[in-house]
Amino acid sequence: MTSTAPPTTPASSPKASPFSLVARHATRDNVRAVISQYGIFLIFGLMVIVASFLSPAFLTTTNIVNVIRQMSIIGLIVSGGIDLSSGSVVGAACVVAASLAQIPDRAFYPAIAGSPVVVAILAGCGVGALAGMINGLLVAKTGIPPFIATLGMYTAARGAAMLYTTGRPLSHLSDAYNVIGQGDFLSVPVPILILVVMAFATHILYSRTKFGKYIYAIGGNEQAARVSGINVGRYKILIYTYAGMLSGLAGLVVSSRIGSGQPGLGVGYELDGIAAAVIGGTSLSAGGIGTIPGTIVGALIIGVLNNTLDLVNVSAYWQQIIKGGIIVGAVVLDQRKNRGDR
Amino acid sequence: MSGEFVLRMQGISKRFPGVHALDQVQLNVRKGTVHALMGENGAGKSTLMKCLIGIYAPDSGTIEFNGQQVSIVNTHHALSMGISMIHQELSPIPHMTVAENIFLGREPLTWYGLVDMKELNRRTRELLGRLGIAVAPEKKMVELSIANTQLVEIAKAISYESSLIVMDEPTSAITEAEVANLHNIIRSLRNRGVSIIYITHKMDEVFNICDEVTVLRDGRYVGTSAIQSLSHDLLIQKMVGRELTDMFHKEETPVGEPILYVRNYSGKRFRDVTFQVRRGEIFGLAGLMGAGRTELLETIFGVHPRTSGELYLHGKKVEIRRPSDSIRHGFALLTEDRKLTGLYMNATVRDNISIANLLRYLRGPFVRFRKVAADCERMRQALRIKTPSLQQKVRNLSGGNQQKVLLSRWLLTEPEILILDEPTRGIDVGAKAEIYRLMVDLARSGKAIIMISSELPEVLGMCDRIMVMHEGDKVGELARGDATQERILQMATGLNLSTANA
Question: Residue A42 domain-assigned?
């Protein structure tokens, strides 16, 4: 897509420069462009190499699968922009799905337990989509900042999840349900399949469809999108609904993986998600910038980091401090990059 | 020219809090004509156009389009009826490509429902080729120059195949050759029966391309005439009204010794600029949008880092790294965008005036509010700030009075060099005249004033010397006696770069 620009761009300076100078500038610009475009992937590669030196256990298959298993959960949450509620929506969606998937004779809600796993899946995604739609309606119709709207949902969805199970975990889930988080398909873990499929679908959705073009346009310049005849409110509601649905899906995966739907699941996921997006090059300061591949790599970086720090026995407390530093560092780099633009 | 009207706007009124932006305005545009909409800044041209395309709802009045009364609810509605607009102030979506920007909201789809990027780029290439605009469809908007950005906006408005196109200052950033090309495009559109509402400040363009002119002044309708029945002077007179003669109270004040000497200054968006300013002088900076004037002065003030150059005050070299340095050395900067970088809209008049001076009102850790109030009151009277009290929030003041509050703030610091960036943008005619009077008073009291202005009459009326910039280079300097509108425009568009540099 991003082919190198033809060198015919008219130079702004009327003074003629020696050709060699121009060429050197051009290559230096190209190098910079490559670094700013793919820098995040380079950093990821570097981290993997460093990690494998630090710990001989790193490159074993089980460990890599472990990293990606963790990441599949975070990766799903990532796609929705600023959405503080996604962690709470994970909790709400997973208890509803689990209540449907429990084995009937030991169930919390015997009347609905033992439903087909498809129903549980649809219900989990549906709860997420509903919460997301409420977020979207609040943002689009009342004009309150997304931060506030989703902060409300952050508290309310967690409360609803607690209310639904009176705070208790819902265990004894059906085997079919547990396949979502624990099963393998052609010896590939199911969560990884879900991640790959959803990442690919979302990437196409964001980069190749009208819907995708419009959400980038709204992020880049809302007023310009409006005067181009785009129904801004409708697309805002849609993107929040889609993000909520993904949170619901993450709830399914995480509850199935631990074999229990718990109202307290997903605490802090929203921040992991935002961190992964930011590290992956999504800009919080200027809208309309960011990609799914970048976000996935951002999530993988956080995962590899967690894992490496675990393996070399860094305490969990230090891990949090290091993670915080990396997030802020990523934003500092991002701002420096975008300041050059205009 | 046919007699049939494509658009009839009658009795349009629109109020904003504190301002009567439009008062019973009418605009009638004939089919297949180019209709100029003229008036000073703040006359209501943009507001009227926003009522037309559904960004604002007028408080009263009727709009007839193609003979039918319509009520336009949003821009989408306007576009679907065949009204499109080149927006002057709207920037594009920076991280999307040229093609994506032009066809935003109208993307061609493939049979399986995805956006057809190939077709999108092909159509864009064809459109730009037809209009003679040399920009690659795949380029991102951030990578374009300001002139090319404006050309893309023009192409976008034309691509809707509308029967009425509003062009709000379409030539503010492009070169003469590109203007000529645009005018050819406009002529061919007109021959196909398209009507165009053309908003501009450039007199030549009006007489060059337009068939009829409607003039607004202070939100009121002044009149509509065929272009043949008008002369330059008559048109200006209609626009400015009676203020024309006493608008600029320019007095020749004695010019003293040089205070500021800026040597070989370079920074972001400007290169190798050298100039001098003397005591008692009003020094003007003219140029098109994006010429680097604001960046130059903000760099001198210490907002941005410079890449090279030296700065001398009273012949002594000084080092300015940040605004606090320049304030200490007696600079004051009135920024271009009052709301963004100047005023605290929700704070009181008093707090806004005193904020840059709090240090000198301190006794121990406490602010001596009685002294603050006395000084603010003095400023209010000196500058004739219209406000019910010093406790009023600045938000509730008119644009002109807000500007005076900002000016008071900087005058309290007792500066030697006053930098004014577009000091009269968006304020009404009366307040403008008062700002001009103040500038003359300040110059007479021995201060040096540097003014950026995009309104040439203002530059010509107020400045003792005018420096013209073009794409970051100083093109030349004109003394008050030598400066004319045409000369400045020529230099600002880079036409006689080679001769002026000599």
Answer: no
Give me the CATH number covering residue A249.
1.10.3470
Name residue B196's beta-bridge partners. Answer: B34, B165
Residue bearing tokens 């007199």: B203
Coil, helix or strand for B421? strand
- Residue to test with chain B: of A37, A207, A227, most B Cβ within 10 A: A227
Residue B9: which residues within 8 A CB-CB, separation 6 or more? B25, B26, B27, B28, B48, B51, B52, B61, B62, B63, B64
- Residue range(s) in chain B whose domain bears CATH number 3.40.50.300: 5-242, 246-330+415-502
Q: Give B216-255 pLDDT, tens digit per residue.
A: 987 889 999 999 998 877 887 777 665 444 567 677 777 8
Looking at domain B246-330+415-502, its CATH class is alpha beta
Length of chain A: 342
Q: Considering the entire predicted model, what is its pTM?
A: 0.70
Residue A145 falls within a domain, yes or no?
yes
Name the nearest CA neighbour of B409 among B353, B447, B351. B353
Mean pLDDT of A154-178: 92
For residues B376-385, one letter each, b for 16 or more C-beta atoms within 10 angstroms of the residue's C-beta and e for the rest, the string is beebbeebeb
Q: Hey, what amino acid is at B439?
A: M
Q: Is A172 on the interface with B (CB under 8 A)?
A: no
Q: With contacts defined as CB-CB under 8 Å, which chain B residues touch A288? A: 93-96
Its domain, for residue A332, covers: 54-337
Q: How far apart are CA B89 and CA B175, in angstroms?
A: 18
Query: Is A89 among the domain residues?
Result: yes
Structure confidence by residue, pLDDT tens digits, B45-74: 888 999 999 888 999 999 999 989 999 888
Residue A82 falls within a domain, yes or no? yes
Residues B151, B145: Cα–Cα separation, whole Å: 10
* Domains: count for chain A: 1
Structure tokens at B465: 């010397």
| Residues in chain A closer than 8 A to B143 (CB atoms) | 5
Is residue B426's pLDDT more than 70? no
Examine the predicted complex and report whether its ipTM is higher than 0.90. no
Fold annotation for B5-242:
Rossmann fold (3.40.50)
Amino acid at A51: A
For residue B93, list chain A residues with Cβ-Cβ distance below 8 A: 216-217, 220-221, 224-225, 288
